[in-house]
Design brief:
This protein is α+β, with helices and mostly antiparallel strands. The chain has a single domain, classed as 434 Repressor (Amino-terminal Domain) (Orthogonal Bundle), CATH 1.10.260.40. The protein contains 5 helices and 3 strands, in the order ββαααααβ. The protein has a 3-stranded antiparallel beta sheet with strand order 1-2-3. Strand 1 and strand 2 form a beta hairpin. The longest helix has 11 residues.
Length: 76
């Protein structure tokens, strides 16, 4: 996924699918625990959208990792 701003571009690699698989939980279970729809979480997993920081922190806590383990940022 690319996030473009006027003066710079950030490339983000989402490893959410891997971390959910490691947790041996379903996306539906995690979405329910977070108060999300399955579709919202699916959009994050597939890179169609990016969660707000507060939700990113929440999912990292649920999965027992750091945000930077799930989303990797690379500036061009």
């Amino acid at each position: 996924m690319l996030v473009e701003y006027k003066q710079w571009v950030i490339k983000m690699k989402c490893r959410l699918k891997e971390w959910i698989a490691k947790s041996k939980r379903t996306q539906a279970d995690i979405a329910k625990e977070m108060g999300l729809t399955d579709q919202q979480l699916s959009n994050w997993v597939t890179g169609r959208s990016v969660p707000p920081l507060k939700k990113a922190m929440q999912i990292a806590k649920i999965l027992g990792c750091d945000i930077s383990d799930i989303w990797e940022w690379e500036e061009d």
